[in-house]
Amino acid sequence: MADFNVNLREKDSVSVIDVKGFLDAHTAPELENVFNKLIDTNQFKVVVNFNELNYISSAGLGVFMAYIETMRENNGDIKFSNMKENVYNIFDLLGFPLLYEFFKNEDDAINKFLESGKF
Amino acid sequence: MSSYQNNAALRNFSALVDFGNLINSSLDLEFTLNNILLTCFGKFHTTKGIIALINEENVFVIKASKGVSKNVLNDFPLITTINYDINDRFSEYLTKNNFQVYQEIKASEGLKGLILLGKKITNQDYDKEDINFLKTIVNVGATAIENSLIVDKLKKINRELDSKVNQLSSLFDLSKEFSGLLKTEQIAKLLVYSLIGQLLISKYSIIISERNQLNILESSFEKENILKILNNIEIENINSVISIKTCEENLIKELLSIGIELIVPMQIKNKTKGLIVLGKRRNNTDYTNSDIEFISSLGSLAIISIENARLFNETIEKQKLEKDLETARNIQKNLLPQKIPITNNFEIAAYNKSAKMVGGDYYDIIKLSEDKILFAIADVSGKGVPASLLMANIQAFLKTICKMNLPLAEATNLLNDLVAENTSNGSFITFFWGILDDKTKTLTYVNAGHNPPLLVRNNEIIKLKKGGMILGVVQTIVPYLSETLQLNNDDLIILFTDGITEAMNKNWEEFGDERLDKLTLENSTLSANQFLELLKVKIDEFTSGAEQSDDITTLIIKVKK
Q1: Residue ranges of chain A with pLDDT lower than 50?
Q2: Is A99's CB within 8 Å of B200's CB?
C-alpha cells in the first residue's frame, strides 16, 4: 500500500498540516481525522504544506472540499503551500485555484492569515 | 514631392514589417490585439480603440480596448455577423462615442471581428491612404489573431483531454478501492469525497433503496428536504439523469428550492438502486456531459460495491443464523429422552427426525414411579424455530405437571390451560399421553386432538381416540376424558405424528392411514424395535427422492409375552 503521513503543528497560531506521500481514497481518512480534530478544538486557520506530497487523487481533493465551508464559516480558511508541480497540475485541472489560495511557501500563507487578522 | 511620398511609403512599409514580425512572434491573443491597437494609435494618432471578435454564436464580443471608459464598453450593442453594418444601434454607438472608422478583421476562414477607432487627435478625418493602411494592418493582424485563437482552442481541448484522462484515472483508482471495501458507510464516504474533489461540489446526497425504503447514506442537504422531494418520485422509476437543464418546469422549481441541480441514478443491470443528488458546483460552472458520465460511472462502481457489501454481510448473518440453528437443534435433541426406561412387561422404541433444522414434534418417556411409565407424543403447529420454542415450553410444563401426581385427565386440563396462556399467535399442539402400569399391564391415556395411535390386537386395530380437543386453542371448558385399557400380551401400540401418514413421494402422494394400518396388521408380531426399523425402511422407500416436508416422530410399544 502507498505510504501516507500527516503531521499537525502550530505556527504563529495558524495550524499547519504537513502531508507526505500518497493522498488517495485509502489514506484520505487520516487527513479527515486531523481536520475533525481541528474543528473540535476550534482551530479554523489552516495551512496545508504539500512539500513532501507526491500524489493526490480525487478522493484526497474531496477532503479539502468537505471542510472548506466549516473553516470559512468560522473566519478561517484552508490555504495551500509548497506544492510540487505535478500535484498542482491536478488541483489546477479541476479548477481549485478559483476557490483556494496557493502559496509558494508556508510563511507566505501564514502571513496572509496574519495580515487579514489585523483588519 | 515624389521623394516625400516614397519616404512615407517606405516608413509605412517598414512599420508594417516590424508589426508583422512582432505580432506573429506571439501566440498570445491579448498580446496580439494589444499590439494591433497600439500600432493603429501610433500611426493614426488616435487615443481610443476597440477590437471585438465573434464568439461561437457569431456575436461580436469586445476582446481588447484602449482609452475607452467602462460605460462605453458596457454600452457595446449586441450585434452579430449578419447585417451588423446596417444595424441602427451600431451606427448610433459609433456616432455617440466618436468612433470614426471601423474595419472588418478577415482571415482565411472569413470574418473574425471588428476594429473600431476613435477620431484623430489632430481632428483630421481618416483619408484613403489611412484606410488602406488600416486594412493592411488588420490583414496582417488577422492571421496572428487566427493563430492565437486556434492555439487557445487547442489549449482548451488539451485541458479537456487532461481532465478526461484525470477522470479516467480517478475511476480506475476508485474501482480498485471500492472493490476492497465491505462496509456501505465507507463506500458512500469514498464516493462523496471523490465526487466533491473531482467536480468541486458543495452539496450532495447519496441515497440507496433497501427493501423499498430510502436510506440516506451521506448528505449535506437537509435530509428532510431530500426525503420530501423523493417521496413524490418513485426512485425505481428514475432511469436517466435528471438535470435542472432538461427536466420539466414544475420539477425544476421544486429541485431548485433546495438547491439540487442534478440527480444521477445508480444502477445495477439497468435497475435503479440508488441516487446521487448534487447541488451546484463551487466554481459556478454547469455539469458537462462528460462530468455526468463520470458521475454515472462512479455511481455504478459504488452501487455494485454496496450491493456486494450487502450480500457479504447477509452471507455472514446467514452463517451465524445457521450456527444458531445448529445449536438449537442440539438443545432440542437433548430435550428428547436420551434413554428409554426398561420395564418388565413393555418394550418401547422411539424415533424422531426433523424436517428443518429444528422442529415442532416432541415425544417423551418418563419413569414416574417403580411401576408407572409416562409417555407422550406431540406435534406443534408450524415448523422451525417458533414451533421448537413452543415444544420446549410444553416439555417444561409436562415435567412440572408430572411431579404433581394428578389423574391424567385432570393433568391434561391443566396442561391445556398452561399452553393456552402461553401461546398468542394461534399456535396449537396435538397431544397424546398415557401411563403404562408395569404391574397391572394397563394403559391409561388422554388424546388431545392427536392422530389416534393404533392398538393392534388379534389382527384388529383399535384407535385410541378418547380425550378432548387440541391443546392451546382456548382455556379448558370441557374437561378432558381419559380411558384405561387392560393390555394383552403381544399387543402392539403405534404412536405417530402426521409426518408419517403425510409423508409424500415424488408424485405428491401421501403415505396415508391405510398404508400404515396395513403395514401394522401385517407385522404385528414384530418386536417394537423390529417394527420401528421396518416402518423407517417403508417410509424411506415410499418417499425416496422427495424432500422430507414435515417432522417425523413415532413411538412403538410392545407388550411382552
Answers
A1: 119
A2: yes
